[in-house]
Design a protein that fits this description.
heterotetramer, A: 333 residues, Rossmann fold, Hypothetical Protein Tm841, Chain: A,domain 3, 2 domains, 8 helices, B: 213 residues, mainly alpha, Serine Threonine Protein Phosphatase 5, Tetratricopeptide repeat, 67% helix, binds adenosine-5'-diphosphate, binds magnesium ion
């Protein structure tokens, strides 16, 4: 099948996307003059604020660059499609946003990202800038051990909590603690109904039989827990919620934030039908939804599918998720 | 050992030129391997990296071998990202150091180039043999090379041992469960698939072999 | 091909979507107790404000219900997939949001919608409530005569302008005039690379040969001006901009708002590559982009494709588009 | 004319039951016609409407014909939307009025039912023959019916003329450019396709015919 994508030279997609992005959202962001892979908030560096740096491979938009702006991330470091950025832009981002209070790297737990961001942090350390890292590990089915799990759409809540803490004047340790707390209380799981198309090859990343779905698939198309025929939305959500709630039990009276996330090609109709079931399940358990998002927040280009993210909240996390922010893809008044 | 077996800059430049061709020709093959147990971009990553090398090759060819390979390594490191970027980046950044700023190396130095390069991949990725990574091709390859040199084989024959062991090492990843990289989360589902990085490493070594005088 | 959709009974999609929507966005909206097809802002009726009512068929989310909230629409009337709502909910929406200053119906120009909304307005008139209507007619290639044209993504700017005018205290005539001015200055054109899937049939709405695109296609899959092989993004945008600029010439010094809209399955990467070209073309002409949006604003479910909307601005329209609003799918601080 | 040819409630309920079946069976056919020149939902619209009718049929069957058809029409109007909702909604809301609150009609009244119903579609949609709409089936059908009655044909034969002319009328839309509805924006591209509303109208009339005693 021919790829149904609107691009020019596939080797230029990331550069052209970034160019388009800073043109479209020029009130919010700029690209670093000395590094085309670092998108920085127009407000950064913010005086007396810990620098919040997010990043990872391209192909998950609005992750990561879409969340750069006031009250959210100060910079995003942008890799090639599905590929971690290299160390230099990770380092350049620090140089661009550090305001003397140090910086935090926040990204999904992938080996490639860890290697590159760690090298960036080493370079910053050589300049005497302290950089801490919190890896997002929300994908419940990707490993038994929490620290080995992948980061998927839970990024949004973890980044938001940390960024709000920074915006409220927290120091680097406090910002790190906020990110760790949000991550410890966040679980996600997804289902894919098709593969994304890789611009460079013009082909799906992986083969999937027509009519199949894969429960638990990662946002780069990493295999999940079970492949089978596409099922009704409610049945799919029931399975996802079983996994999430087995991993992070919730009790009556608990409060949560929920993100029902499109992986790209799944329309808002379907997402809201899915959200309905999530909400019914939580309602039955007496769990209160404090805040809900439904839409494309952490995608895999044109992949059909969705994920559910649940973050268990305490008063601090509620405050952090409610904290105002203004970015091209998330604004809270 | 092989004191008169001198490898000059032309040899290395020819190898790099062949690697540039390899990265394009095998792009979809490496990517296909990565689709099965990773995220389907290993071939694309290499082609992005070597396209950058190609763009600068004429310019960089004027440098001594140490500088030349540092620039190749930095290009891979900075343009690729992911796992392949830092791993192969380290490999090439280190690779030229035993040449000590010269334009040619003898066979002993040639051996040392691979030694420091493979070690830097091990240091960067912290992987050991049996974890289903490029180390499964490179470490046994290097060991076989070393042994062949100790046993007094002629230079090209000795390097042939590197090539053969690297290829065998790449094949040896097929039945393995992965312990490093993206494939590590697949558990048993990774079994039956060759590791893309081990495959590209073995192909790199083969390219070095093919150009040996 | 099996449909890659996450739904339950296809005859329940609209009801379940609305249920999910009001559950997810309960801080913003409720559904009318006496009419499940009317989604109303929690703030409505707003004292001394003209009631702003938008609506149309489902399948274009976040249009229409996504734009109900403070500073934007007071209510959305929701039809079946690709089908105008019936007269009763149109009327019930008026009853729910009218604050004594009358109401305005804003929707895309489709015969079915006109019949139904007109009947709703007649019913309201019988109650002595004045309801005015402005039809959005932004799709340049759908007819030679502006008044015969379809309404597509231009809805967003036209609705926004009218709603801001209402929010600023304008009377019904002023709100109507603002909508008419925005509509007169708005042009859109799209390209489809695939068909949306109809839940009821599980099939694409129309057949498209693999690798084809259709320039000028409507958001319900109505045929466009030309079918051909998929081309590079820049070439597609060049053609779209040619049509738009031939219909509404722009001069150096003009200011515009731009919306590069996903029809559903086209990722943000591609949209930003497209935006880049739009911006380049405007830059060359010396036209200034005052405000740009890039993302899924008026979709056709899982259709691959995008549209470009340009609204020519004067000071009043700038003020209206910049006016703050807070809805689940568009927030302006 | 046909004073002893009485159609009772059972006849009409049977017709509605058949329309319910028709709406399901021909759903994908009507939808397919609409895909070609509209938005591909005409069949789905009818099935949504008649599913609602089916749900309430037993309840509504207790009413007189005028009330019964008003409820059928209101159901179509309120559940369908789009063009078909108001058009067929008006049709059925008017259709029962000549029955004047009774449970049966004579043939003259039966004719008047169609007359007011077709006129209400014309009034609602403001379409005339030749614009590629359901009016292209209904208006010639009604005219042929009227003529057949004037000419003194037996009731069922007279209605057969309605059926035939409606079918011909539906076919006559194929070569037309549309002047109303979604298809109007297609210009020449609508040529060669049968109008979905004309097709469903003709099928409705045929259903009335088939149940006639
Ligand atoms: N820690 C590691 N040590 C050595 N090699 C590794 C390590 N992690 C991954 N690799 C190698 O990298 C390859 C994948 O590279 P690539 O696909 O380019 O990067 P990514 O996994 O970031 O997409 C694997 O096949 C494996 O050989
Ligand atoms: N103004 C009109 N007068 C009469 N019939 C019309 C008119 N507009 C549309 N139609 C009929 O409605 C049919 C389409 O119905 P449907 O698909 O259910 O509604 P929509 O066009 O809103 O999707 C057309 O095939 C045509 O026969
Ligand atoms: Mg990768
Ligand atoms: Mg990879
Ligand atoms: Mg319709
Ligand atoms: Mg239709």
């Amino acid at each position: 099948m021919t790829m149904k994508r609107l691009i020019n030279d596939p080797y230029d997609v990331v550069e052209e996307m970034i160019d388009g992005y800073v043109r479209a959202h020029k009130d919010y962001v700029k690209v670093l003059e000395n590094d085309g892979r670092v998108v920085v908030s127009k407000k950064a560096p913010v005086k007396d604020k810990v620098g919040v740096i997010i990043g990872g491979g391209s192909g998950h938009e609005p992750l990561f660059l879409g969340y750069v702006g006031e009250g959210f991330a100060d910079a995003a470091v942008i890799g090639n499609i599905n590929t971690s950025p290299s160390p230099e832009p990770c380092y350049n981002a620090v140089k661009a946003v550090d305001a003397g209070k140090g910086c935090i790297y926040l990204y999904g737990n992938y080996a490639g990202d860890v290697m590159n961001f760690d090298m960036g942090a080493e370079m910053a350390a050589a300049d005497g800038i302290r950089v801490e890292t919190v890896l997002v590990t929300d994908d419940v089915v990707s490993s038994e051990n929490i620290e080995d799990r992948r980061g998927v759409a839970g990024d949004v809540f973890v980044f938001k909590a940390a960024a709000a803490k920074a915006d409220l004047g927290g120091d680097l340790d406090e910002v790190k603690a906020a990110a760790e707390k949000a991550n410890a209380n966040t679980r996600s799981m997804g289902v894919a109904l098709s593969s994304a198309t890789l611009p460079a090859t013009g082909k799906p990343i992986f083969e999937m039989e027509d009519g199949d779905m894969e429960i638990g698939m990662g946002i780069h198309g990493e295999p999940g827990v079970r492949r089978g025929k596409i099922e009704p939305a409610d049945k799919v959500i029931d399975q996802i919620m079983d996994h999430i709630l087995a991993d992070m039990p919730l009790e009556s009276g608990d409060e949560v934030a929920v993100l029902v996330n499109s992986l790209g090609a799944t329309p808002l109709i379907d997402l809201h039908i899915c959200y309905r079931r999530v909400d019914q399940i939580l309602e039955e358990k007496g769990v209160k939804v404090h805040r809900a998002y439904v839409g494309p927040f952490a995608t895999s280009m044109d992949m059909a599918g969705m994920s559910v993210t649940i973050t268990k909240l305490d008063d601090e996390l509620k405050q952090l998720l409610d904290h105002p922010c203004d970015t091209p893809y998330l604004t809270i008044k | 050992m092989g004191q008169d077996y001198v490898l000059n800059k032309d040899y290395f430049i020819d190898v790099i030129k062949d690697l540039i061709v390899l990265a394009e020709e095998k792009r979809d093959y490496f990517t296909g391997l990565d689709s099965a147990i990773g995220d389907g971009d290993h071939g694309i990553n290499l082609s992005i990296g070597f396209r950058e090398v190609e763009k600068n090759l004429e310019e960089w060819a004027k440098e001594d071998l140490t500088t030349f390979f540092r620039k190749v390594g930095m290009a891979l490191l900075s343009k690729v990202g992911g796992s392949a970027g830092p791993l192969y980046g380290s490999f090439f950044m280190k690779f030229g150091t035993p040449a000590n700023g010269k334009d040619e190396v003898n066979f002993q130095e040639f051996y040392e180039m691979f030694k420091v390069a493979v070690e830097s991949i091990e240091a960067r990725g912290k992987a050991v043999v049996g974890e289903k990574t490029m180390v499964d091709a490179l470490r046994p390859g290097l060991d076989a090379f070393e042994k062949a040199i100790e046993e007094g084989l002629a230079p090209k024959e000795a390097f042939n041992k590197f090539k053969e062991a690297a290829n065998e090492g790449a094949d040896s990843t097929i039945p393995l469960v992965a312990k490093k990289g993206r494939a590590m989360r697949l558990g048993e589902r990774a079994v039956g698939h060759k590791d893309p990085g081990a495959a590209s490493s073995a192909a790199f070594i083969e390219t070095f072999y093919n150009k040996l005088p």
